[in-house]
Amino acid sequence: NQYEIIVLDLDGTLTNRDKVITPRTKKALMEAQARGKKVVLASGRPTQGVMPLAEELDLPVIVHDRDAHRDCLDLVRAHPNARGVFHCYSGSAEDAKTLVKLGWHLSFTGTITFKNARKAPEVIAAVPLERIMVETDAPYMAPTPFRGKRCDSRYVYRMAETIADIKGLTRQEVEEATTATGKKLFGIPDGEAEAQPTREMVL
Fold first, then answer.
1. Would the CA dihedral through 111, 114, 116, 119 be positive or negative?
2. Residue ranges of the alpha helices (H) in the chain?
3. Three-state DSSP class for residue 110
4. How does pLDDT run along the chain (203 residues), one tens digit per residue?
5. CA-CA distance, 98 to 91, in Å (whole number)?
6. In this structure, how many other beta carbons lie within 10 angstroms of the beta carbon of residue 66?
7. Distance between CA atoms of 64 and 135, rounded to whole angstroms?
8. CA–CA separation, 117 vs 38, rounded Å?
9. What are phi and psi of 68, to 5 degrees?
10. pLDDT (tens digit, 9 = 90+) per residue, 130-183?
11. Smallest Cα–Cα separation from 135: which of 158, 118, 117?
12. Exposure pattern of 141-180 as b/e (b: 16+ CB <10 Å)?
């Protein structure tokens, strides 16, 4: 009962980046918050309406940046009071440092364990552990040696091991740090089941 999925409406006749959140959607989000529901805003494109709403309602944003690094970085800079995580981060170490300075987090999938991973190890080495998260991106991007299989939370330890190797830490240190980061960002109370979803709201 803590979680509620609301499908956000996107209205507008301009480009994707000019689309806005409808009043009906905003009302639904505010009502969900008033009922004690947990909400996250997630955007698969740099939609202009998401960031102002996140700032107004103090909601964390999940950004899916796919080949739109400059657009997403510009959007984050334009909304300094927004906060959240770049899911499946694939940008450069330089952009990662900028995002961290702006208060954002970076999340990594099983791709960081691949032999051909190049940028991700540089990024992980360049940013502080407290700004790093791990994820499955299920059912895709299973880590080695499970590559090609359906990915799920059983394999997240491989991401933690890889980060630990890069940073010269133990897997337990990485697991504890990334768990604490996720709980803090998404407002998950201590003691809540680790396998339970975080906050639900995908745009």
1. positive
2. 23-34, 50-57, 69-78, 93-101, 119-126, 156-167, 171-186
3. helix
4. 555 555 555 544 334 444 566 777 778 778 888 888 777 665 555 456 778 888 888 888 888 888 888 888 998 999 999 999 999 999 999 999 999 999 999 999 999 999 999 999 999 999 999 999 999 999 999 999 999 999 999 999 999 999 999 999 999 999 999 999 999 998 888 775 444 433 333 33
5. 11
6. 12
7. 13
8. 34
9. -140, 40
10. 999 999 999 999 999 999 999 999 999 999 999 999 999 999 999 999 999 999
11. 158
12. bbbbeeeeeebeeebbebbbbbbbebbeeebeebbebbee
Contact 110, 142 (CB under 8 A): yes
> What 3-state class would DSSP assign to 32?
helix
Q: How far is CA 162 from CA 122, 144, 165, 170, 172, in A?
A: 12, 10, 5, 10, 12
